[in-house]
Amino acid sequence: MTRDITVEVELPHPPDSVWLALTDPAALAEWMMPVRDFEPVVGRRFTVHAKPMPGWDGVVHCEVTAVDEPHTLAYTWRGSRMRATTEVVWTLTEPEPGRTHLLLRHSGFPGLGGAVMALMHRGGWRRMLTTRLVSRLATA
């Protein structure tokens, strides 16, 4: 059994602006975390860097698995404390002109340990999307 995370947010910005916030390394560093070697190209490997904690080096290893600009971006996600590789999928739709419905699905957290990891990630993703991304888009 795996645990999955779903976070949805409505943004008063067009999909192209939200897409840029999800794919520009400088923008990602402002609202998510610094990334190294990221390009929205299938097969591209990159790393995400957070503050290290006891037992975790702060590095998440990723690989882009799908790109459909400006609708879908997907990549694998595996930190050093994670037992399995998970998947992050961003889906952008335009419910009305100039607005974006952003759906984040982070899936594949296995077992009891996965439940704990999913809980930790869920809080981080919600905070990043509802506060930090919203703030970044408002000042862009």
CATH class: Alpha Beta
Largest sheet descriptor: 7 strands, antiparallel
Q: What coarse outline follows from CA principal-axis ratios?
A: globular
What is the structural class? alpha+beta
Mean pLDDT: 93
Count of alpha/pi helices: 3
Determine the CATH topology.
Alpha-D-Glucose-1,6-Bisphosphate, Chain A, domain 4
CATH architecture grouping:
2-Layer Sandwich
Low-confidence stretches: none
- Per DSSP, what share of the residues sits in E-state strands of 2 or more residues? 35-45%
List the strand order in the largest sheet.
1-7-6-5-4-3-2
Q: Helical proportion?
A: 25-40%
CATH superfamily: START domain
Question: What is the number of independent domains?
Answer: 1
* Intertermini distance: 40 Å
